[in-house]
Amino acid sequence: MSEFFDVLEHRDPDAREQALFTALPQALKTAVERAPAIADQLRGIEVGGVHNRIALAGLPVIRKSELLERQLDGRASMLGVGRQQGYEINRVFGGFSTIGWGQALRVFASPGPIFEPESARADYWRFGRALFAAGFRKGMLVYNCFSYHFTPAGSMFETGAHALGCTVFPGGIGQTEMQVQNIRDLAPDGYTGTPSFLRLILEKADAMGVALPSLKRALFSAEAFPPSLQKWFADRGIEGFQAYGTADLGLIAYETPARDGLVVAEDIILEIVRPGTNEPVPDGEVGEVVVTTLNPDYPLVRFGTGDLSAIIAGPSACGRTNKRIRGWMGRADQTTKVRGMFVHPKQVAMVARRFAQVQRARLVISGAVGHDQMSLWVEVAPGAVSDDLRQSLVDAVRDITKLRAEIVFEQPGLLPNDGKVIDDVRSYE
User: Fold this and answer.
1) Least packed by Cβ within 10 Å: which of 230, 257, 258, 427?
2) What residues pair up with 360 in beta bridges, in sequence order?
């Protein structure tokens, strides 16, 4: 039996890169023609020339907040407007979808609310390979405890299981006693859902004196899955793995038996960018996960997830050859309020870009409530440090944020590699 979902997982990395960037220009052309929001995002850009990562990095990143804003504007501007061609694409999906009612099999709502379409394409969310890596195989029964209403999580795992030839029981959430009874009676091979809910089910089973020996594997998402919890399930005979995805993009990365990070999914282009900017960071540096998907129905281009992660060097020991990431490491949106004024990561980036001497910058907010203190820490080579540079940085911070900051010089490479551009360490006691 193959160790891989398909041959794409172990192909030569250069062949994968070539295939992705051969397909990308046409995908962008189609998206511009059919998705008004993508046409606006890429206005003035010759998409036929986007055939490598350098060219891709020249495209603007669009973040979730902007997607929500565009959807809200669509609903407001088209309120009361009669049905017409492209009505749902613009009013409901903000111009990011290329399909409307009839072509979309389902529509979901994630917090915002942000609406996402699902077409009838098999394994639309691409979770089949994550389930395969977690040990699910054709003919198994999958007990799916992700929600089946509003958000797409339940459908993500169900359609992925169907792609493997599995049968799915839609367990949903809540009613732990009934969940225990169903698992006892159905004897499913594996579980999909959050780790915390499976733990609740197993603890309820203990309290009821019911054994659930059929569960041997699990694919978790939506919550952290630390080694301590991994061991807790392993001690009960359940091998658990984690998958990382979003309601907008579907599967982004998944864990394998090698347990050496999360392998990036096929059919997407993943970048790690400095929060608040469009600029990719070097491999290993923590930044925001940005994804371009080749999904023809919902063609998001350089979509900023708001999640922090970092690229891990080298191939996985499991034999899969795609890039790996360290998994979810926090949120990139570090906007905070200082002395009554909002300060955004992009403002810190704007300051840093004014000075060739500055290699990295980090704004530290300290003090107690009502006594905010702001310091800009910058990595500068020792020979470039000067009082003139210090004063120029003070002036630039004031110009861009309307606030005063102290300047702290640090040697290159010494600022923490945690993806933070704004570090709020104030005391709220």
Assistant:
1) 427
2) 379
